[in-house]
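Justification of computing resources. Each target in the renewal requires a structure prediction run like the one illustrated here; the chain below, 322 residues long, is used simply to show the kind of job we budget for.
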Amino acid sequence: MALQFQPWERRLIDLAYEALEGHIAALNALNVRSDDPALESAYQRCEQITREHSRTFFMASGLLSPAKRRATRALYAFCRVSDNLVDVPDSREDARANLDQWRERTQAPHIAADDPVALAWADTRARYRIPWRYGEQLIDGVMSDLSTVRYERFDQLAEYCYRVASTVGLMAMHIIGFDGGRAIPYAVKLGVALQLTNILRDVAEDWRNGRVYLPQEELQAFGLDETDIATGAVDDRWQRFMQFQIDRNRRFYDEAVPGIALLQPDGRFAIGAAAGLYRGILDDIEAHSADVFSRRAHVSTANKLARLPGIWWRSRIVRPQG
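Resulting structure tokens:
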């Protein structure tokens, strides 16, 4: 059966293809010496950031070859620094200024040795010919958190998910290697699935930070409003709402995972692990009656290890649709 697209998905796929156009000149402008002694310590710093901030990503990237492993961790560090710049400053003006400076530093043809994440990321981009436009789209998405803290409709939220998560998958796909443009829609959908999982897990934390990523239309359809989020009431309405969200999120994973077959074989297990382990968060939310207020949903290390053999097998037999 051919892969089917909703109107909101077509918009996101168009954004992904747009980023592929005209990026070669920007790549050729990068001037990073592969024998630069600062590079090794720069990559080590990226590994440290990944280990500290995402055990799931660190575990999944560890399934790659050494060269691709350190490149994906440079990608993660680039994304982490971008995201942190929004949350750390005291004012939105500071955050915008810092993000603009970060954008300029990571686009510069010459990267300073004392800017390790930018240096490792520039080297990774050059080695794997990663379109910079994906990085710009990600920074644009992160920047939007400074002005947009509510989403009325799901299609609006999906575009945000594309910018802050699908772009990451599209950049990772260049590191791993992929079979032409037909892999792109799968990467877009997987990114949306991963970010929606984050959103469902982090409802309480986002509320404390003044943000509600759950579509307002869908909350209202289940008789909910932000008062229910503020009080953390886990009643029948909330549970039905969350089951709807979880079911849709799982469907996105189901539709995205066949695209793993379009990746180079040495990267399929790692991406399958990232998707499978993150999907486990939905199981944990469901197992605790959709209570995302009194606890943070997670997958234990033991549970992750128990899931890996099945993920490995599925990554070997998966086939793309159409």
